[in-house]
Amino acid sequence: MMKKNWSLLDVAPKYWGVIYIALIPVFAIIYCLLPDNSITNLQHGENIGDFLFRCLYFSTVTITTLGYGDLSPATISAQVLVMAETILGMVIIGFFLNSVAFLKSQIDANAEKERMEEENIKQEKLKLSRFYSILQREIKRYYRYTVIVTHPMGKRGSAKDYNPDFSFHDLSDLFMDTMKLTDATYEPAINYYYRSQNDLAATLKSILLSIDFKNWPQLEQDIIHVIENIRILDFEKYILNQPNMRIGKEKASEFDAKMIRDWDSEIEFRPSSGANAYIALYKLIKINMPLISKIENEIQTIING
Questions:
Q1: Rounded to whole angstroms, how far apart are CA atoms 174 and 189?
Q2: Could you identify which of 73, 155, 182, 198 might form a hypothetical disulfide with 79, taking C-beta atoms 3.0 to 4.6 angstroms apart as the criterion?
Q3: pTM for this prediction
Q4: Are 219 and 248 in contact (CB under 8 A)?
Q5: pLDDT band, very low/low/confident/very high, at 157 (cuts 50, 70, 90)
Q6: Burial class (CB in 10 A: 0-12, 13-18, 19+), 99
Q7: Helices (H), 48-150
Q8: What domains appear along the chain, each with residue ranges and CATH number?
Q9: Residue 291 is inside which H or E element, if any?
Q10: Phi and psi at residue 176, in whole multiples of 5°?
């Protein structure tokens, strides 16, 4: 990182003010040390308190360029000191005013930056709100088919809510129909599940590309995780093709359904195992469902906040 060059403008106005005030007693002391008659009407023989006060008074009217004339420099050395104090005072006042102007410009710039950031957040919230109306529909659809796929036929008709504790065996009827009047009876539930998942992923990708998540990095990370999980655990082509394949005289989808139903091992991936596709589906649902709920809550909080 490059080091910022120091500038006199970086000095706060209060410090210039302190320097300006400090010059008054400094020059007053110098005036006290001058020989008699260096300053008219100012003699060392007078009362010490009055003498010191009059030196302070002379320094004050000199640095402020008032110059009442009751006290005035009478020697060259005194005149040089008066010129030096006057010039220093004017220079410091100049730096003080410049510093004030610079500080004000910084305050104005920061205020404008904050205003623009607030406006940007407002616009991004508005865009997010519009996307959310679409996203809600996709989440609701994905949720519905996830509930169906994760329930066997015996419970499918009455299943309303997603069970986060569903077992691997509950996926055994994924090639059966959805039992919904609006869906084709000849089409497996898993087909509808993958369509809803792909539509949800497409909507999430659109949100990522359209929204500036600078102020909501956690939401961005959660959306990315959902999309990445879908990509990494994607066995859609394999699973959807199983009804078209045969293992001996039996459909591969029927063979797989029995395998899932009779599974009695750990739910872990195995080398060259046909079960891996369904284990991936099982793990994907387990991982993504809570993440999707979290995303929904995060968006609601942002929109309503």
A1: 6
A2: 73
A3: 0.71
A4: no
A5: confident
A6: buried
A7: 48-63, 76-149
A8: 11-112 (1.10.287.70), 119-304 (no CATH)
A9: helix 276-304
A10: -85, 170
